[in-house]
Write a structure and sequence with these properties.
Helix Hairpins; mainly alpha; DAGK
């Protein structure tokens, strides 16, 4: 019984890693955000001493932004699958999804300014 439980968890983890790999390969915005995060955090952390609490906040912000980007990419793909042709309602859905990424990105940037300044 334990082997079945563990096998199912490993399969779930494998599916999640496949999704992450797909995001990396297909979504340029995901790669840009990772590159920008690594560049900014690495550079600024050398200039400013960061406490453990601040590192936790940075990590949470990065996770939220990347998670939002993953949801946005997924919503866009679902919309394209449902309606491959141009559709006003689909455009609104995609725009709102992109706005969610913008909102969390701006909030993360504000938190970054507070931490590093």
């Amino acid at each position: 019984m334990k082997n079945v439980f563990l096998a199912k968890r490993l399969h779930s983890f494998k599916y999640a890693l496949n999704g992450l790999w797909h995001l990396w390969k297909k979504e340029i915005n995901f790669r840009i955000q990772i590159f920008a995060t690594i560049t900014v955090v690495t550079t600024l952390s050398r200039l400013v001493e960061i406490t453990r609490t601040k590192w936790m906040l940075i990590t949470i912000c990065v996770g939220i932004v990347l998670g939002a980007e993953a949801f946005n990419s997924d919503i866009e793909r679902i919309c394209d699958f449902i309606s491959p042709e141009k559709n006003r309602q689909i455009k609104i859905i995609k725009d709102i999804s992109a706005a969610a990424v913008l909102i969390v990105s701006v909030m993360a940037a504000i938190i970054g300014v507070i931490i590093f300044c």
